[in-house]
């Protein structure tokens, strides 16, 4: 295998803390077998999320010192606005403290009882914010997306036929907006093709329904288009993203992902009337529209980070790193979602631990085993995160049971991930010893963050 080349050198280091197996047994029990309840100091390698966990560059830190902390009209806002405007081409740009704040505002205005909001696949906070308004969130992935083994270059694509059926069945007046999540986080960080975006847009245009992008990982998505979609090899990821946004009527983005920032996000719109209503709610919930719940220095870090995230050497390393981990795990025979996605490796828990039924959370059993064995924190994306309880109390399993190893940007080296791959291979070799779990307590929504469990 060729050497993976990190296009940066390390200037500041943070020591890692090893724990013993005995300590981890106690800590996991105290955390009620939910790794969200662990302290990060008790985690050796933290692959819980790629959100807000990036290492910032010297240029970002330097930019933060330039932060203008004025309440209104800060210079940092205009720098941020210029970058987001250049990327999205949208005239109305609102900073928010993170992605879900944009969702909250947008769906408060567009959602509500009787409304239906389709997506290629909704992310968990997006779904929760839609459902909270009484609207229904519908996933319309292409069929290939639901089979972890099927190789398809754009598994994030939306099923355009089903979209049109949905519109005809319910009527366009019930569908205030259609979303495309780029890349699709929940089904494996899989990209959406420009061809698919155009096809979706064509259908929506016929019915007068706006298209919005959930653009958290748009740089990674643009790079996959460059690598895989005919006709784009010579275009820069930034230009490809500009084309992506050109088909959208609006977008929101958590800058904690491809913004390479530790906090922040934005909502960008083309429609003046909607922008005016967003501005009112922004002031109510986030802050004045030129800071939107962020410090001026955060706006600077995002403006710089967004540009760095589109650099080709960076994206080559980023996407190459994830696929390298996929190669190692494949060599160990571990069942995975293929091909490799942009920000994470997704283990197929259903095939990893077929003896554990969905209602006993096979993914969570693997997550707990990985922490106990190696101090590594991953996250379940399956029955615990997305399962539902039917009226008769039966467990309704989502289509996939996955374990996500999210890779923070520019944080861990190849040897850190080699250690993780070896640990997972050890667990796979003894997978018949894995035991399921039972849910003791759960919240009414986003239950995976706080749920309490016990091993069976
Ligand atoms: C992270 C994420 C969000 C929400 O953003 P936060 O900054 O975590 O609030 C929305 N959609 C997708 C696809 C995400 O990955």
What does this structure look like?
- The protein is an alpha/beta fold.
- The protein folds into 2 domains: 21-50 and 312-455, Aspartate Aminotransferase, domain 1 (Alpha-Beta Complex), CATH 3.90.1150; 58-309, Aspartate Aminotransferase, domain 2 (3-Layer(aba) Sandwich).
- It is built from 16 helices and 16 strands.
- The strands form 6 sheets. A 5-stranded mixed sheet has the order 2-8-7-6-5, sandwiched between helices.
- The mean pLDDT is 96.
- The structure holds pyridoxal-5'-phosphate (PLP).
**Strand neighbour order, sheet with most strands:** 2-8-7-6-5
Structural class assignment: alpha/beta
- Strand proportion, as a percent range, falls in 5-15%
Instruction: Identify every distinct bound molecule in the structure, by name, code or SMILES.
Output: pyridoxal-5'-phosphate
Count of DSSP strands: 16
At the third CATH level, what is the topology name of the largest domain?
Aspartate Aminotransferase, domain 2
Count of structural domains: 2
Mean pLDDT: 96
CATH secondary-structure class of the largest domain? Alpha Beta
Total number of helices: 16
Task: Name the poorly predicted regions.
Answer: none
Rg computed from alpha carbons, rounded to a whole number of angstroms: 21 Å
Architecture (CATH level 2) name of the largest domain: 3-Layer(aba) Sandwich
Q: CATH superfamily name of the largest domain? A: Type I PLP-dependent aspartate aminotransferase-like (Major domain)
Largest beta-sheet details: 5 strands, mixed
């Amino acid at each position: 295998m060729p050497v993976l080349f990190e296009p940066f050198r390390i200037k500041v280091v943070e020591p890692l803390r090893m724990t013993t197996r005995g300590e981890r047994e106690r800590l996991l029990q105290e955390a009620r077998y939910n790794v969200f309840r662990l302290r990060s100091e008790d985690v050796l390698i933290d692959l819980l999320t790629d959100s807000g966990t990036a290492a910032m560059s010297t240029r970002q830190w330097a930019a933060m010192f330039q932060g203008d902390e004025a309440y209104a009209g800060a210079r940092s806002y205009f720098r941020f606005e210029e970058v987001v405007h250049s990327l999205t081409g949208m005239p109305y740009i609102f900073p928010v403290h993170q992605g879900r704040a944009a969702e909250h505002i947008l769906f408060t205005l567009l959602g509500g009882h009787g409304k239906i909001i389709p997506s290629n696949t909704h992310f968990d906070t997006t779904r929760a914010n839609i459902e909270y308004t009484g609207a229904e969130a519908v996933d319309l992935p292409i069929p290939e997306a639901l089979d972890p083994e099927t190789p398809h270059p754009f598994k994030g694509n939306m099923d355009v036929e089903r979209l049109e059926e949905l519109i005809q069945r319910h009527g366009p007046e019930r569908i205030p907006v259609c979303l495309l999540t780029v890349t699709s986080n929940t089904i494996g960080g899989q990209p959406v093709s420009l061809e698919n975006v155009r096809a979706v847009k064509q259908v929506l245009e016929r019915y007068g329904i706006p298209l919005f992008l959930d653009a958290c990982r748009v740089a990674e998505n643009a790079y996959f288009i460059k690598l895989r979609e005919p006709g784009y090899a010579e275009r820069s990821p930034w230009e490809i993203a500009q084309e992506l946004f050109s088909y959208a009527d609006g977008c929101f983005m958590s800058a904690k992902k491809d913004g390479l920032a530790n906090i922040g996000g934005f909502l960008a719109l083309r429609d003046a009337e909607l922008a005016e209503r967003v501005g009112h709610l922004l002031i109510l919930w986030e802050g004045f529209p030129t800071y939107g719940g962020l410090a001026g220095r955060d706006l600077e870090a995002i403006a710089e980070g967004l540009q760095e995230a589109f650099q080709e050497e960076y994206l080559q390393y980023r996407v190459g790193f994830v696929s390298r981990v996929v190669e190692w795990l494949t060599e160990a025979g571990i069942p995975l979602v293929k091909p490799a996605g942009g920000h994470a490796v997704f283990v197929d828990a259903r095939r990893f631990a077929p003896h554990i039924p969905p209602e006993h959370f096979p993914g969570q059993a693997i997550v707990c085993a990985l922490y106990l064995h190696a101090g590594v924190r991953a996250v379940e994306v399956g029955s615990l995160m997305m399962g539902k309880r039917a009226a008769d109390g039966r467990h309704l399993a989502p289509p996939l049971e996955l374990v996500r190893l999210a890779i923070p940007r520019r944080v861990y080296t190849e040897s850190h991930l080699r250690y993780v791959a070896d640990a997972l291979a050890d667990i796979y070799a003894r997978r018949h010893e894995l035991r399921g779990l039972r849910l003791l307590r759960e919240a009414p929504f986003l239950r995976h963050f706080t749920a309490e469990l016990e091993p069976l």
